[in-house]
Task: inverse folding
């Protein structure tokens, strides 16, 4: 069984599309009037960006504490490369520079109130 997609709710769909297409390797499939967008990455994983206004709410959506989405990178250099690109985006908030976290190397940042992790796959050497 393969995971088909994840739906995340954001206040600003256009800014989310920019983040995921310009920095995280997604291609835009459809953008429905900046209220909802569907993107896909090279692994055929779909990400649905749902605008909070479709929920008839104006505020920035809240996520549960420690909820986040994560993206594995090949090595520490790729983590640094993404970090250097992302830190030019004025609307993102970073917890720290890339560093050792748990048993891997990476960093966390926030888009609106959504936490996103960029790290090296800590299990890559253990996969048969």
Result:
């Amino acid at each position: 069984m393969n995971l088909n997609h994840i739906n995340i709710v954001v206040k600003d769909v256009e800014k989310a599309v920019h983040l995921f297409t310009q920095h995280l390797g997604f291609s835009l499939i459809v953008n429905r009037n900046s209220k909802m967008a569907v993107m896909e990455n090279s692994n055929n994983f779909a990400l649905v960006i749902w605008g909070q206004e479709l929920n008839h709410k104006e505020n920035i959506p809240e996520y549960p504490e420690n909820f986040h989405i994560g993206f594995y990178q090949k090595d520490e250099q790729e983590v640094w490369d993404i970090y250097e690109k992302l830190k030019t985006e004025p609307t993102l908030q970073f917890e720290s520079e890339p560093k050792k976290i748990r048993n891997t190397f990476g960093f966390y940042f926030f888009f609106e109130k959504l936490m996103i992790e960029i790290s090296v796959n800590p299990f890559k050497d253990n996969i048969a």
